[in-house]
Amino acid sequence: MGRKPAPATTMGSRPAPATDPRTVRPGRLRRRLTIAFVLVAGISAGVLAGGSYLLLHQARYDASLHAAAADARYRLVLAGQFLPLTEQRRSELLTSFEGSGRHVVLVDGDTWPSDPAYAPPFTERLRSTVAAGQLGYQRSSGPTRLLVVGGRIPGSAAELYVITGEDDLAAGLEQLRNALAGGWVLVVLLAATVGHTLARRTLEPVGRASRAARAITEGLLATRLPVGGRDEFSGWAASFNEMAEALEAKIAALHRAQERERRFTADVAHELRTPVTALVGAASLLRDHLDQLPGDARRAGELLVTDVVRLRRLVEDLMEISRLDAGREAVSVTDVDAPALVRGIVAARGWSDRVTVGDGPLRLRTDPRRLERVLGNLIANAVQHGAGEVRVRAVRSGDRVHVDVDDQGPGIPAEHLPRLFDRFHKVDSARSGGGSGLGLAIALENARLLGGRLTVDSAPGAGTRFRLDLPDIAPERVPSARTAAENAGSTRASSGRPDARGSEPTGGPG
């Protein structure tokens, strides 16, 4: 009997994909596109609004300065007509400037004949510029925004300063700034709405394709995508539909082939049962008279009897495999003492000198006949292919029961482990003696019926450990993986569902 490794993970379970698409949060790409659209629109609108405000701000203040400077030049020329500035002429000069909307401060040396209470403090820079005979200006940003433009009156040492209020200008610019900020907010909100709508409509074909792919994964092979228009998504949908049709046809063909394989196995086993039964009877009669045969005939008779026994076991294994595949095997749950069951198996098969069973009772509710079948195959595999003492130990871990079968044999090469539970797989393919290669496959199917898992851990030169992991209470009905897949496939064939069978290893003792 060759050994068949299974990965050290749970036997019969499909490896989970690196990323399960059902765990991906929906709408993430849509949110990213919406955020990108909002950022582009917001940054563009913000740059445009900010640039426009800064340009207009500078232009308005420059225009105010130019107007104030022109008015100051006019007033300076007008003031030159009142020279010399006697007390009376100063009064006449200031009176002529009243009602112009601007305040005027006249400085004659260090004296301030007019009341400068409304004037801000003049800076040294402004005073020195004016003293040099040039036109200067300053702005104050206190509670009242004032623009001061001053110059020296031609032909005199007196200085004339024109003060213009800029509060209205500042208020207008502030209103413009608020309007631009409000407009920017509206643009961002509009961009968010438009971006979300566009992203949703753009990605809707992707969402449909994702849902269709998930439906096909779940077995709805009749799922198709609508094809309309001539854009890239339409071409994608057409290619997807072609792929789904090819997949549906392939799975249907595989299901038919698998059904033929199952029927073939069952038919062969059934047809061989009657002639093999007759051969077994004849072989039993021949075995009783082997001592009466001459030497050469006796050897041939012994080989015939041995091969007939192997043929009978092969037919029995094929019959059991066909029953498991057909889903006709029921589970009868009762209380079982696992160590006592193992000791009974060992004693009945004459392995007491090779197998050591752990002490202490350990009870669970399961099907004793199927548990005996699983453990019998595992122990037989260890006795035939292992070396040294075979140890069987049952322990409880929470609501699970672990039964370990350890041997001290040469171990199993790593390349055989993934196929250890495949049917008819043998580690030594050149070996013709021993088992049929179905024992571990039968053990695996029966373990599934008990709601358990069968795993193996082995390395060359380090022995082998088979572990049977069972629930504390076996389910009343758990179909085998192959039966469940076939039943699902036949159900889905009429509803558009695929055969969801995974590539789960099955196998028997080599």
Can you characterise this structure?
The protein has ten helices and eleven strands. With 510 residues, the chain is of the alpha+beta class. The longest helix is centred in the middle third of the chain and has 57 residues, at 232-288. It is rod-shaped.
Please sum up the structure shown.
By secondary structure, this protein is α+β, with helices and mostly antiparallel strands.
Q: What's the SSE blueprint?
A:
Elements: H1 28-80, H2 87-97, E1 103-107, H3 124-131, E2 136-141, E3 145-152, E4 159-165, H4 167-217, H5 232-288, H6 295-326, E5 334-337, H7 338-348, E6 355-357, E7 363-366, H8 368-385, E8 390-397, E9 400-407, H9 439-449, E10 453-458, E11 464-471, H10 481-495
Parallel strand pairs: 6-8
Antiparallel strand pairs: 1-4, 2-3, 3-4, 5-7, 8-9, 9-11, 10-11
Distance between the termini: 4 Å
Order of helices and strands: HHEHEEEHHHEHEEHEEHEEH
Q: Radius of gyration, rounded?
A: 49 Å
Largest sheet: 5 strands, mixed
Instruction: Describe the oligomeric state of these chains in a short phrase.
Output: single chain
Class based on secondary structure composition and strand pairing? alpha+beta
Give the overall shape, derived from the CA principal axes: rod-shaped
The helix content, as a percent range, equals 40-55%
Low-confidence regions:
1-24, 483-510
Strand content: 5-15%
Strand order in the largest sheet: 6-8-9-11-10
Tell me the total number of β-strands. Answer: 11
> How many helices in DSSP terms?
10
